[in-house]
């Protein structure tokens, strides 16, 4: 993999040019932001071109802008973004920073083992809201709560654009025991992988690998050459063993509107 070229493509396609309906994409001289149509949802600054000279002023402008909308927002920061101390600057303005994530990318054409893996019959594609409810029950068993916003978004996206959201779960009888999904980002080279939760009693049965493989095979079939994931420290070594390569660290920085 030519990591420099893939990172350039990632910046252009997945940070600079992409849109996320129903969010409204706005581009200024210094950054690209996505704004929610309602104050109840959050916006995001996805890409920035800042310098030591203008960083403070641009950060203040964004705080004022989202405050005028009465909207909380995330600043998605990558470790190569400039200036080099941008993370510390955001913290200084009251942003809270979630756990560091590793941006991993897989070249689908090189993932021979995953492309040829026979998908076990326990893996089913989810095509309706009842299947999403099964996945939410799985997550509630794992984490003790359900992310209602995630459930609503998956149901909406699956109903409105099933060509670009592919959801899968491993079942034991009628119970979802492992689940993951993938967005195929139209007009880009990338699919993005999400989820990957498995109930403890069903780990080490190959479900995680099968869920990665079924998404690799779907991406290949639909002509998406690259898959990306924001990996946690737990999932990073597993994915790297399957051919994903590390490109950068990212930091989700959140500002809560009060």
The CATH class of the largest domain = Alpha Beta
Shape: globular
Q: Strand percentage, roughly?
A: 25-35%
The CATH topology of the largest domain corresponds to Aminopeptidase
Structural class: alpha+beta
Radius of gyration: 19 Å
Mean pLDDT: 96
Low-confidence stretches: none
- Largest sheet descriptor: 12 strands, mixed
Instruction: Give the second-level CATH assignment, the architecture of the largest domain.
Output: 3-Layer(aba) Sandwich
CATH superfamily heading of the largest domain: Gcn5-related N-acetyltransferase (GNAT)
Tally the helices: 8
* Secondary-structure element series: HEEEHEHEEHEHHEEEHEHE
Alpha-carbon distance between the termini?
44 Å
Pfam family, one: Acetyltransf_6
Protein name: N-acetyltransferase
Domain N-acetyltransferase: 121-258
Organism: Brevibacillus fortis
Overall description:
By secondary structure, the protein is α+β, with helices and mostly antiparallel strands. It folds into two domains: 14-101 and 251-255; 112-242, Aminopeptidase. 35% of the residues lie in helices and 30% in strands. The protein contains eight helices and twelve strands. Strands 1, 2, 3, 4, 5, 6, 7, 8, 9, 10, 11 and 12 form a twelve-stranded mixed β-sheet that branches. Helix 2 (55-68) links the parallel strand 3 (43-48) and strand 4 (73-78). Helix 5 runs antiparallel to helix 6. The relative contact order is 0.19. The model has no long low-confidence stretch (mean pLDDT 96). Keywords: Transferase. InterPro entries: Acyl_CoA_acyltransferase, BioF2-like_GNAT_dom, GNAT_dom. Residues 121-258 form the N-acetyltransferase domain. This is N-acetyltransferase. One of its GO terms (molecular function) is acyltransferase activity, transferring groups other than amino-acyl groups.
């Amino acid at each position: 993999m030519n990591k420099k070229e893939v990172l350039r493509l990632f910046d252009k396609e997945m940070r600079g040019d992409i849109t996320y309906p129903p969010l409204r994409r706005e581009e200024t001289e210094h950054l690209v932001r996505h704004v929610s149509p309602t104050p109840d949802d959050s916006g995001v600054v996805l890409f920035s071109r800042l310098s030591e000279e203008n960083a403070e002023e641009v950060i203040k402008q964004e705080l004022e802008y989202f405050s005028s909308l009465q909207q909380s927002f995330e600043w998605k920061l990558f470790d190569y973004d400039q200036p080099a101390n941008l993370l510390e600057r955001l913290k200084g303005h009251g942003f809270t920073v979630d756990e560091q994530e590793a941006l991993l990318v897989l070249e689908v054409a090189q993932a021979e083992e995953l492309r040829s893996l026979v998908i076990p019959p326990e893996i089913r594609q989810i095509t309706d809201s009842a299947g999403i409810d099964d996945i939410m029950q799985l997550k509630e068993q794992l984490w003790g709560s359900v992310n209602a916003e995630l459930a609503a978004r998956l149901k909406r996206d699956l109903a409105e654009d099933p060509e670009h959201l592919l959801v899968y779960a491993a079942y034991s009888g009628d119970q979802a025991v492992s689940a993951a999904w993938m967005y195929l980002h139209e007009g880009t080279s990338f699919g993005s992988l999400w989820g990957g939760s498995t109930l403890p009693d069903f780990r080490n049965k190959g479900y995680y690998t099968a869920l990665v493989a079924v998404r690799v095979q779907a991406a290949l079939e639909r002509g998406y050459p690259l898959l990306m994931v924001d990996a946690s420290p737990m999932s990073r070594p597993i994915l790297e063993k399957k051919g994903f390569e590390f490109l950068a660290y990212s930091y989700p920085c959140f500002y809560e509107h009060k």
